[in-house]
Design a protein that fits this description.
The complex is a heterodimer. By secondary structure, chain A is an all-alpha fold. Helices cover 72% and strands 1% of the residues of chain A. The chains are: A mainly alpha, B mainly alpha.
């Protein structure tokens, strides 16, 4: 392992992270819910009366973020290296996996770890480990 | 009011993803590539988020109503079962393939990126697969006692 110091962005990582934490805090303090994106989207896959508008509003906020950003400044670098077939496979795995796992990076990784929930910590360890292993296989075993 | 709060939370969340670099799949993969030239930035994203979030969750754990008067609905599931572990492993494989998780998928879609939209469509299809399998399971569970009578 070597650390890519030229790619390391500690200040923006901490500030952006604090904003994500503030969003999750705002959400639980006002709406009393976990800001878990996969769960919020999942509830829209099987909509129930009276349980839809807040979900759509949260999703709309996420989608609107780059639009709002663009009003004031150029978007930061966003590079998607994966091919379309890889993206479709990845999307399917993320869609199914987060639902069975009951959460994703936001619900388990941010909110669950903030609550010190052992279940969320276990889930976070599992998806991080699988992510590390997948990139290792893809970058160092299949296409070194 | 709840709708406004939801939108605001989603917006701040999305801006945080953009500021932190989480919305850039290439940077996420740089974090997941511990055997290569490792970019540890995203560990600090989680540290920053948890540092700010922990206080709010500690406060709400003791309350039954939010500041707006809504019921506090924190997850009651505690069991670390095969479902949560295998599901999270499957999620992690998908995350490692593309460098995209559900929050950034929505931000990417908002940029109009074709690749972001393709990922989001596949993710929603994955959601559909889950709902279909769960419904089949519920139906099977519901029919079993009927058949036995």
């Amino acid at each position: 392992m070597s650390i890519a110091w030229n790619a390391f962005t500690p200040a923006s990582a901490l500030i952006g992270g604090a904003m994500i934490g503030a969003a999750a805090a705002l959400f639980v303090v006002l709406n009393g819910r976990i800001a878990g994106v996969s769960g919020i989207l999942g509830g829209l896959a099987r909509p129930q009366a009276g349980d839809v508008s807040w979900r759509i509003a949260f999703v709309a906020g996420l989608v609107a973020a780059p639009l709002a950003w663009r009003v004031l400044a150029a978007l930061p670098e966003i590079r998607v290296d994966a091919s379309f077939p890889a993206l479709v496979a990845a999307g399917l795995l993320v869609g199914v996996g987060t639902r069975y796992g009951g959460g994703c990076t936001s619900g388990h990784g941010v909110c669950g770890v903030s609550r010190a929930s052992p279940r969320s910590i276990a889930a976070t360890v599992a998806f991080m480990a699988a992510g590390f292993a997948t990139v290792f296989v893809a970058r160092h075993l299949i296409a070194p | 009011m709840y709708t406004v709060a939801s939108f605001a939370a989603g917006l701040v969340f999305g801006l945080g993803l953009l500021v932190s670099g989480m919305a850039n799949p290439a940077k996420v993969l740089g974090f997941l590539d511990i055997a290569g030239a490792w970019d540890p930035s995203l560990a600090l994203v989680m540290a920053g988020a948890v540092a700010v979030g922990a206080g709010a969750f500690a406060l709400m754990r003791k309350r039954t109503r939010t500041l707006l008067g809504a019921p506090v609905l924190l997850p009651s599931a505690r069991r670390i079962d095969r479902r949560v572990i295998f599901g999270s492993l499957v999620f992690g494989v998908g995350w490692g393939l593309a460098g995209i998780c559900p929050g950034p998928a929505l931000v990417l879609a908002g940029t109009g990126s074709a690749k972001g939209l393709a990922f989001l469509a596949a993710m929603m299809a994955g959601n559909g697969v889950f709902e279909f399998l769960e419904k089949k399971k519920r139906v099977a569970a519901g029919l079993a006692p009927t058949r036995s009578t």
